[in-house]
Amino acid sequence: MTTRPWNFAAGPSTLPLEVLQQAAADLCDWQGSGTSVMEMSHRGKHYSRIRDEAEADLRTLLAVPDDFEVLFMQGGASAQNALIPLNLIGRGGLGRADYVLSGHWARKSFNEAKRYGDIAVAATAESSVELDGRTYGSWCWMPAQDQWHVRPDAAYLHLCANETIGGVEQAVMPDMADLGAPDVPLVADMSSNILSRPIDFSRLGVVYAGAQKNAGPAGVTLVFVRKDLIGHAQPHCPSVFDYAPVAGAQSMFNTPPTFAIYMAGLVFKWLLKHGGVSAMDAASARKSRTLYDYLDGSALYENRIHPAVRSRMNVPFFLRDESLNATFLAESESAGLLALKGHKAVGGMRASLYNAMPLQGVQALIGFLQDFEARHG
Ligand SMILES: *Cc1c(COP(=O)(O)O)cnc(C)c1O
What we know:
By secondary structure, the protein is of the alpha/beta class. It has 2 domains: about 25-275, Aspartate Aminotransferase, domain 2 (3-Layer(aba) Sandwich), CATH 3.40.640.10; about 275-375, Aspartate Aminotransferase, domain 1 (Alpha-Beta Complex). Helices cover about 35% and strands about 15% of the residues. Helix 3 packs across helix 4 (about 105-115). It is globular, with a radius of gyration of 21 Å. The chain binds pyridoxal-5'-phosphate.
């Protein structure tokens, strides 16, 4: 077995080695078909099997109920930021939607939606706040769900379940009835925590996720839509982006990103083989707790996110002496720990702990952090 460096990239991000090896073995000749997956008709019998198994495995992994369509789309989560309002905001002539602002990605979704209707903020963590005797900065905390203001006649409420840049995760999806808006469907961007924990679809109308964080390579976007929310697109919504014809054609309204779907399908099979979402849930809790506990106990490093909403997927941290940043990055890379540089909007460092990153990788990171602190702290 090849040994590889540990890749902590936020996305595109590390994939299971077994998946890459399977893809390599299949690359020029998929299972005796004489062609690569890239060369097959998306309507042929081989590819139909690949696509159908990918959807079936994804449904099994997340226990997706029958009243949800699973769509494989293109354009990434960024396209969905427009497609959510284009498909949903006109439902029943409502024309309005509410957004929870938890960080950079939620704000991007909000800004895009403003082009399509009357968009309001239901809650925001943009300001800093005093909580439990400490000050938490912009995007480092979350307003409690009982303080969100949702218009009961909004077409939907949007939230980002995991802020990949900021490192804030909302583990529990709100019950819309508790928010005084029982008829408002909840829409969640789960790009960076999909498949890391179970999803309570009874609380959701739409879930979307670009694959390249936790589900496969870039190029395919997973969209789960409750069936009653399909068929309300604006007249000017492009057909390839209207959920109704896409669902009606089993995501083959036009040529789908066949190779990306095949790769995601291999990831789904790998997940099933390794215990499914419940095993990933437990592993995510353990990996992230191990790293946060170390950071909290160290004199050199710090994580600035309120403990109740710390992401299990993306762990941003800072060196208290920022003049050591360049040395830290150079030494960590030489030690086989890749892509620890934080997003430019936040600075510092960030370690992404997706499903394909084992506890062993987190322990290697902590070993390096200790050694670096011993030499520079
Ligand atoms: C990466 C990311 C996006 C953007 O995804 P693209 O595929 O680049 O459009 C949106 N939301 C979240 C939470 C992300 O992590």
